[in-house]
């Protein structure tokens, strides 16, 4: 597991620690130049979306990785956190189903928290 993958896994673990559901890490580095990994998760309410996003940002900051941008926090339905090589998507379940990031990036290797893409 390389360093970027470890950081993506740390983001996924931070989401899970805040009770996010369906947490997955997607290896997209061969599919797009925008990032190496996407972390995708669901949270059931506006406060939970905000808490998950803050927990991820704080955890990665503690690892020395600064957030380059945040989108969607005002509505807290789909929050995107840009860490450069890692982009985190925190969705409300209905918005995740509608946008279905996993389908859009269907060729990516996808694995759940605690698994490795090896």
UniProtKB/TrEMBL annotation:
Gene3D superfamilies: Beta Polymerase, domain 2 (3.30.460.10)
Keyword flag ATP-binding: no
Keyword Lyase: no
Alphabetical keyword list: Cytoplasm, Repressor, Translation regulation
InterPro entries, sorted: Iojap/RsfS/C7orf30, NT_sf
Pfam families for the chain: RsfS
Membrane spanning residue stretches: none
Localization annotation: Cytoplasm
Subunit comment: Interacts with ribosomal protein uL14 (rplN).
Functional summary from the UniProt entry: Functions as a ribosomal silencing factor. Interacts with ribosomal protein uL14 (rplN), blocking formation of intersubunit bridge B8. Prevents association of the 30S and 50S ribosomal subunits and the formation of functional ribosomes, thus repressing translation.
Similarity-based family: Belongs to the Iojap/RsfS family.
Protein name (database record): Ribosomal silencing factor RsfS
Gene it is expressed from: rsfS
């Amino acid at each position: 597991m390389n360093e970027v993958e470890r950081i993506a896994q740390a983001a996924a673990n931070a989401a899970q620690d805040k009770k996010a559901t369906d947490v997955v890490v997607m290896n997209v580095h061969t599919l797009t130049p925008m990032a190496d990994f996407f972390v995708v998760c669901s949270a059931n309410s506006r406060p939970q979306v905000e808490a998950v996003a803050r927990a991820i940002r704080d955890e990665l900051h503690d690892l020395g990785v600064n957030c380059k941008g945040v989108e969607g926090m005002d509505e807290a339905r789909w929050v995107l956190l840009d860490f450069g090589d890692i982009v985190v998507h925190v969705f409300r379940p209905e918005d995740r189903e509608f946008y279905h990031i996993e389908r859009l990036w269907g060729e990516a290797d996808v694995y759940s928290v605690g698994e490795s893409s090896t």
